Amino acid sequence: MEPSLARVDYLQVGVTAQKTMRLLPASGKKATQKVVVGDQDGVVTCFGIKKGEAVPVFKTLPGQKISRLELGGALNTPQEKIFVATGSEVRGFTKRGKQFLSFETNLAESIKAMYISGADLFLCASYIYNHYCDCKDQHYFLSGDKINDVLCLPVDKVNCITPVLACQDRILRVLQGSDLLYEVELPGPPTVLALSNGNGGDSGEEVVYGTSDGKLGLIQITGTKAIPRWEIGNEKKRGGILCIDSFDILGDGVKELLVGRDDGMIEIYNFESADDPGLRHDYALSESIASIQGGCVGKDGYDEILAATYSGWLTGLTTEPVHREGGSGEELKLSQEMQSKISSLRNELEQLQIKVLHEREKYQQSSQCSTAVSSVPAFSVNDKFTLNKDDASYSLILEVQTAIDNVLVQSDVPLDLLDVDKNSAVVSFSSCDSEPNSNFLLATYRCQANTTRLELKVRSIEGQYGTLQAYVTPRIQPKTCQVHQYQIKPLSLHQRTHSIDQDRPMNTLMLKGQFSFAEIHSWVVFCLPEVPEKTPAGECITFYFQNTFLGTQLESTYRKGEGYFKSDNISTISILKDVLSKEATKRKINLNISYDVNEESVRHTLKLIHPKLEYQQLLAKKVHLIDALRELQVHEGNVDFLLPKYRSILEEADQLLEEYKRQPAHLERLYGMITDLFIDKFKFKGTNVKTKVPLLLEILDGCDQDGLIAFFDAA
C-alpha cells in the first residue's frame, strides 16, 4: 500500500547548507518534536508547531554562515544539545537557546563537515581532519582529496573510535587515530554518510553513503576491511544525494531510508530483506533538499518527513489526513480552523504588500536625491558543474534563492547545448562572431515564473579549452546580475577512475626538465578534471582516467623533474604534449619531451569508435527517412506493403527523433575524433596528412571498419 503523505510548508529561514536541520528528541512517545535549523545568515532558529502555526522557541543573532548543525550529549542519553559549525568555530546551545560553548578551533579554513559522539568532536576542513576530545586536540589527518562528510562508528558498539571520511576522489578513508587504516573504493564521489538505521545496524559497522551522481549504497566497515552490502544505481537519472535519514514512516516496525536529492526529489526506500532495499515512494519539490529528518512535528501521533530546502523552506510530508473523516461537527470545526487561518494569512499578506509599497517609495525617493548611492541587492547562487559518465556531457545546475528571470550562457570554446527534459525555460541563440571576440556560444534561457532551479547540459570537444560563463539575473529590483565561470579543460571528457586495463596497447609521453612537483601538478590540474588542486603529499603520484565518450584510458605518473603519461588514444597524448609544452614555455622552463608511439593503439581506438559510429550513422539514416515514410503513409493509408525494416522506422519514429534531438552533432563529433586520430598518428612521424582528410571523410561515409583501418595503415 502506498503511503499517503500530505505536504505542509511550515516556515522559511535564510539559505541553508547541507545537513543544517535536526529534530530535537520528543518529550513523550508520540509528542511533537521541536525543529532546529541553521542558515547562511548565521542564525540558529528553533521552533515547534501548535495548531499548524510555527511557534518560536529561540532565535540567535546573525553571524558567519552555518555550514553544519549536529545534536550531541552524553552517550546513551537523549541527544538534545545543539552544536553548530560556523567559520572555524563550533558553538553549543541548550534546547532552550542558552549558549554553553564557543570553541575556536586551530583550523586555518572554514569547517566543511562535523560529527559529534559524546565528548568526541570530529571536524573537517577541505583536506584536513581533526579529532578533539573535550575540546582538546587528539588526532590529525591530511586527506589526498577534498573531504565532503565525516562520521564515526558508534563507540558503544564497536568499542573503539573509528572515523570514516567521504572524499571527492570516490574513496571512503577509514582512520585509526591519525593513521589511515584502509581505503574503500566507491562508484561515485560520496557527498553524504549516515549510520544505517541511525545506529550502524546490529554490529554498529554499517554505513550508508550517497554520491554526487545519485548512487546509494551500504558498506560494512569492519576492523580490517570493508564489505559492500548493497548498491542502488541512478537508473532514473535523478540528482545527487545530499542527505539521508532512517525513520519508520510506514509504521511497519522497520525503519525506512529517507533520501534527499539536489533536484528536489525526496525518496523513501523500504527493505523486503536486510540487503534488498526498494524505492517505495517519492515526492518532488522544486529545489534541492539540503537536510531531511523523520519524526513527529505538526501534530501529536502523526509521523512525517521534514525537509529543509536550499532557499530555507521547512516543508513536511505528513501522515495526518488532509480530509478528516467524521460527523458534521468535526467538519464544522475544521472549516472554522481553516477560515481563521485563511483570514490571518490574508491580513499578513495585506500588511506585507503595504510594507513593500512603502519600501519601494522610500527607495525611489532616496535614489533620486543628489547624494544617492546605488545599492546592488545580494543574492545567493548554488551552482554545480559536473561531468556525466553516461552521456559524456557536463551538467550545469544553477539554483537561486529567489525566482530566476533569465540566464545568459557564453563560451569562448565550441560547445554543444543538449536538451534537458526537466528544463522548462525557453532558449534562444544569438549569432556570434568567433574571430574578434572569441565567442563560440551565446544562448539565453528565459525562465517561467517561480523557477528557482535551472539545469543545462553541454558537451565539449577535447583539445579545445577555455571558459564557459553563466550570467544569472533573478527577478528582483533593482535589476542585478551575477557572473559564474567554469573552466573547460583540454581533456574535459576524462573522468577519474580507480584502475585501468594494463593489457591495452599504450602510447607513452615522457617529460623531463627543471620543474618542481607543485609545478607539474598545477599543469595536470589545468589539463584534467577531478584532480585535487592541493599538491599531493609524498614525492610521486599516479592518477588514472577514463574518457567518458570513447572509453579510452590515461595513466599519469609524475614527480619533481619528470612525468610519464600513458594512453591507448594517441590524440590524448598529442593534446597533453601541446598543452604541457605551452604551459612550460609560459614559465620559461625547458622541457625534454620524448614519446613512444604504439601503432597497434590506433587500430584499437578505431575499433572502440566504430560501433558508436555505425550506430549514429544508422540513426541519422533512419531519421532522414521518417518524413518520406510518413508522407507515403498519408497517401497510401496502409503501409503493409513496406519492408519490415521501414515499418519499424515508422513505429519507432518518435523515439528515434527524440534520441536524435537529444544528441545533436554526435556524428560530427565522431568524425572529428577519427580525423584528429588520423592527423595525430602522422604528426608524431613528422608527416602532414591534412590534404588526405577529404578522402578519409569519404571512407567514413561508407562506414567500413576494415577499409578505415586499411586507409590508416596505407596513408
Automatic annotation (TrEMBL):
Any GO BP annotation: non-motile cilium assembly
UniProt GO cellular component terms: axoneme; BBSome; ciliary basal body; membrane; neuron projection
Originating organism: Toxostoma redivivum (California thrasher)
Domain BBS7 GAE: 377-486
UniProt keyword terms in alphabetical order: Coiled coil
Protein name: BBS7 protein
One family name in Pfam for this protein: BBS7_GAE
BBS7 beta-propeller domain ranges (all copies): 21-319
Coiled-coil blocks: 335-362
Domain BBS7 helical hairpin: 599-712
Domain (BBS7 platform) ranges: 494-596
